[in-house]
Amino acid sequence: MASKKTIQEYVTEIRTLHKQIKKFPEPKTDKQKEELKTLKKQLDTQLRGWIKRLDITIFVAQNEQYPWMPEEFKEFVLTPMRPYDAKKWPYYQVGDYQAYFSGGGVSGWIPILVERKGGKEGRSGPHDLYGTLINPERCDVFYREIERFRADARFSMMIVIAECTLSEYLLYTHLFNGKKRNVNHIGASPESRGGKIDSLYNRGVPVLFAGTRTLAVTRYKGLLKGWLRLNYACILKLDIEPYDDRVGLIKKKAAIEEKRALIEAEYQAVCGALGVVVQRGALF
């Protein structure tokens, strides 16, 4: 039985394929197009294997009422977000789900912060999204959450994943209006509800209407894996040339010479404006 490929072996193959693709000429013939297509397909296969072997930890907000469960994330590890500690954990809680990857000599935060909006008692539905956006106090709290996301250097993208469809959200009515049953289906107008969604997009926070809880989990996993696949070269530092003392010194010398030439030119210009005659090269 063949031994299981290690994460480092995947990294080695990814590095080789990445280099081959970068050096591949602009395909002009059908043969070249097929060769490049084959290389990219091989790279994608290696990337999927590499991602499977990464350790991905999902940090879950402790105030989540009906959080996604470990059995829904068998390939990941779910753990509660830690409280802020200046020395041990210098991060404030923000959002509902945060992801951290490690393995094969690399690690870091996946910069996608997710806010989950589900239904009642862990079921799918628009209940949570409607209540957050239409209730003025809850909406203001959520807008402040977006400001905390912007201040957190770990994340560059915040996404609301709703466990409902857009139509379900636009047509939803509460069972009760205050303490009375909502027999007249009183609620915010579709225009007002749509405007709240627009306000999130204008704040740079898109809403992903997943439809159901199961699909919401699937979409979240896809976002994380997609980001890792898209940014593999940066994560693995494949586009950074290895340090070479000789090359480094040559580059440094060229930069010094360029700076010296600029200073000399500025000096000659100032002297010329003042009517002072100096020999070229007198400054150095």
Description:
- The protein is α/β, with parallel strands linked by helices.
- It has three domains: 7-50; 55-235, 3-Layer(aba) Sandwich (Rossmann fold), CATH 3.40.50; 245-284.
- The chain is built from nine helices and eight strands.
- The protein has helices at residues 7-23, 30-53, 127-134, 136-151, 166-171, 190-202, 213-230, 232-235, 245-274; strands at 55-60, 77-80, 97-103, 106-117, 157-162, 176-177, 180-181, 207-209.
- A six-stranded mixed β-sheet has the order 2-1-3-4-5-8.
- Helix 1 (7-23) runs antiparallel to helix 2 (30-53).
- It is extended.
Key phrases:
single chain; 284 residues; alpha/beta; Rossmann fold; 3 domains; 6-stranded mixed sheet; two-stranded antiparallel ribbon; 9 helices; 15% strand
Using only C-alpha atoms, the radius of gyration works out to 28 Å
Mean pLDDT: 87
| Shape label | extended
For the biggest β-sheet, the strand order reads 2-1-3-4-5-8
Helicity range of the residues? 40-55%
Largest sheet: 6 strands, mixed
Order of helices and strands: HHEEEEHHEHEEHEHHH
Kindly identify the CATH topology of the largest domain. Rossmann fold
Classify the secondary structure makeup into a structural class: alpha/beta
Number of domain modules: 3
Number of helices: 9
